[in-house]
Every structure is written in C-alpha cells, then in structure tokens.
Amino acid sequence: MKTIEKMRGRLVVSCQAAETSPLNATVHIVALARAAVLGGAQGVRIEGVRNVQAVRSAISEPIIGITKINQAGSDVYITPTLEDVRSLAEAGADVIAFDATDRSRPVSVEEMLSEIRRLGKSSMADISTLEEAQHAVASGADFVGTTLSGYTAYTTSITDAPDFTLMADLAKANIPFVAEGRIWEPAQAQRAMALGAIFVVVGSAITRPDEITKRFADAIVGERR
Ligand SMILES: CC(=O)N[C@H](C=O)[C@@H](O)[C@H](O)[C@H](O)COP(=O)(O)O
C-alpha cells in the first residue's frame, strides 16, 4: 500500500521538541512517537536525521521526516537543502516534507521534488498560500501541508486557529492537502477532514507538555484576575 493510503483519513502526530525543551533528546522523541502510535496515530512527523533513524527502529507506521536548519540569507528552515533530503531518506523517512513557500531559498522547489522522487520517497510540500500549493503540485509534489500558513511574512495575520479558509481553497482547487498547524481540538481535526484533508497532523496539542501546561495555567491565572 502506498504510504499516503496508510495515513488517509487518520491522525498523524508531530513529535518534536524545541531546542530548550527538556524533551529535546532522541530517547524522548522515540517515546513520544511510541505513545502517539499507542493512542491511534497512523504516522508521525519527526525532525532531525538521528531522531528519524531511532523512530524508524521503534515503530512501523509511516514517518514524515524533516530537518530544521537555519540558512544564512533565507527564512526557509524546514528541510532546506538536497543534502537534508538525502540524509532523511537514508535515515528511513517514508515521506519527506520541505518548505515550498515562495521565499528566497537555497534550492528550488523543482529540484527538491526531483531529488525526493529520485530517492523513491513521497513528498509533502509545506506551504502558506494557495499559490504556493498550486506551484508545488504543478512541480510534482504528492501533496501539500498547510503547515506554514501564519509563519510567512505575508500570512502573519493568521495567528490563533487552523487556516480553514486555506483548506477550503485547496479543496476547491482540487489540490491534495494535509491539515497541519494550530490544531488544538478534536473538533478542529474533524472540520479539517470534512473540508477534504487527506489526513490531519497535530503537534503541540499532543506532544509539547510545556505549551499544554501553559494553556491551563494561563486559564486559571486569568480566571483569578
Ligand atoms: C511552523 C513550523 O515550524 N511548524 C513545525 C513543522 O514541523 C512544527 O514546529 C509544528 O509543531 C508542526 O507543524 C505541527 O503544528 P502544531 O504544533 O501547531 O500542531
């Protein structure tokens, strides 16, 4: 079965830790991935070559691999280079996700996609607008993710909720898309699926305990004011 079919209609959990997080160690990322699978996730999104390698030996569900590397002179940081693509493929990622936004970039979207294809992997183009999605799919991306909506200079007005408008636009344009970014409630995941998402990726709301804690702590402190 093709990787995308294994994840269709299911939940994928992004298991990542910020650099300053106490969970920022491969052993914790593997534990998060295993816990996600126990809970019913049908795939995981993992950052870093070493983490992908370790998670590959721990679970058999599909892995969406990325790197996060700041590049001089470019805002593109999710899997920015061909070298990242090759290392993730070698580490065992099934899908390689990369920044496909229309920003100044070290490697063109076309080159990234042809390398992912050459390595026999599926491609997920992380985009922030409909135009970026159209360009990625026309260039051969298997599917796009709404991952970067709200995170490019030209989409900063979208801040605290999933970008359902973008999802609806992608569906209308017949672009195969995955819903990712700021999904905190099961009802939001259901709404994304109803809008036509292939699958839904949830990160922080499941795997970032500091952010989850903050939500409750802030709610209680706010209540006392
Ligand atoms: C913008 C960016 O760098 N997004 C990253 C992409 O891998 C991750 O930091 C997010 O946690 C992930 O997209 C899941 O989203 P959320 O944590 O909101 O459920």
Q: Largest beta sheet, briefly?
A: 8 strands, parallel, barrel
**CATH homology superfamily:** Aldolase class I
Spatially, the strands of the biggest sheet line up as: 1-2-3-4-5-6-7-8
CATH class: Alpha Beta
Amount of beta strand: 5-15%
The helix/strand series, from N terminus to C terminus, equals HEHEHEHEHEHEHEHEHH
**Ligand names:** N-acetylmannosamine-6-phosphate
Count of discrete structural domains: 1
Mean pLDDT equals 96
Low-confidence runs (pLDDT<50, min 5 residues)? none
Number of helical segments with 4 or more residues: 10
CATH topology heading:
TIM Barrel
Radius of gyration: 17 Å
Structural class: alpha/beta
Give an overview of the whole structure:
It contains ten helices and eight strands. With 225 residues, it is of the alpha/beta class. It has one domain (3-224): Alpha-Beta Barrel (TIM Barrel), CATH 3.20.20.70. The protein has an eight-stranded parallel β-barrel with strand order 1-2-3-4-5-6-7-8, surrounded by seven helices. The longest helix has 16 residues, at 209-224. The N and C termini lie far apart (54 Å). The mean pLDDT is 96. N-acetylmannosamine-6-phosphate (LRY) binds next to β8 and α9. Keywords: Carbohydrate metabolism, Isomerase. Pathway: Amino-sugar metabolism; N-acetylneuraminate degradation; D-fructose 6-phosphate from N-acetylneuraminate: step 3/5. Its EC number is 5.1.3.9.
Short descriptors:
N-acylglucosamine-6-phosphate 2-epimerase activity; carbohydrate metabolism; 225 residues; Putative N-acetylmannosamine-6-phosphate 2-epimerase; single chain; globular; isomerase; binds N-acetylmannosamine-6-phosphate
